[in-house]
Amino acid sequence: MNWTALKALHEIYERGETNKKESLLRDNHILFLLHQTGELKEGVRMILKGDGFEDYYRNNHLQNYFHYYQFLENAGLMKPQLRFQEADIKVLIDLQTGMMSGELVPIRDEIIQAEETIRGVSQMFFRNEKYLEKSNSLVSAVKGILGIAELANDKDQQYKYVLQSHQPAKIVLCENLDFLKRPSKPRKHNIELWYAGGKNIDKLNYIGEVTLPIFYSCDWDYDGLLIYQAVKQRIPAIRLLYPNGMRKSIVQTEHDSHWQSPSTPKLLSGLDRALYSESEKILIVELITANEWIMEETNDLIWMIDSVRN
Description:
Blueprint: H1 3-15, E1 17-19, H2 28-37, E2 40-42, E3 46-49, H3 53-60, H4 62-74, H5 86-101, H6 105-113, H7 118-125, H8 136-146, E4 161-163, E5 170-174, H9 184-188, E6 191-195, E7 214-217, H10 222-234, E8 239-240, E9 247-249, H11 278-290, E10 292-294, H12 301-306
Parallel strand pairs: 5-6, 5-7, 7-8
Antiparallel strand pairs: 1-3, 2-3, 4-6, 9-10
Helix pairs in contact: 5-8
């Protein structure tokens, strides 16, 4: 749901009605409440409160609305033309929280030093590398919260991001940025974390000799394992970490990475069988059969490393 639709729902909650706009009649959430549950009613010029709407809104949106409103207002982002998705607002709130706590400051500094691209920052914090390119206002909001003057528009990223440890004993290369935003646990266990930008791993061609044991952490979906295979070509010594995170439905989570040849799961979606252990191949078959995936950040990083057999 975007901010316009959420604002309209709040107006209906307070006033009993809101102006009927074409954009609202294209919103899936509004259409569901109009035609499936009847919690909204369509008038000639207005969208009206229906039976059960107040309970629905209080239970699902009221607290979030005030939270988002306060954030947008305090951040100077509240404008009449604002069209941010609810998920985007949540990301921006997380960015602000990370900057205020100081956890994101080192990553912000490296983004500036690396002259990072819009696509690179999009890959770090949003759905995919191209997501931010769709919205100049969202790019502006991200830059403002992170305190970054400019982001490059080219597609090439040449820097990796590192969460350093005083006495690193091992390295974990992460597909996503989430573990780097929670520094206390890896540092306590002498783990150095690297982030290379998801699919944008060409920079790994220039890292030189890796003298510490190195492992790979990723989403266990088709794209995540395909990236692992590309990383393995560049760093042959790297070892894949076996996940213990929550399995989620690809359909229900509207995930963009889909298994190939799902009717024949033993083909492992066309992945290179030689790169996976027997237990890993069994897990991949199970995920393909159930059409599920495992999000990287739901795993316990320390558990995964401690589970590695020498």
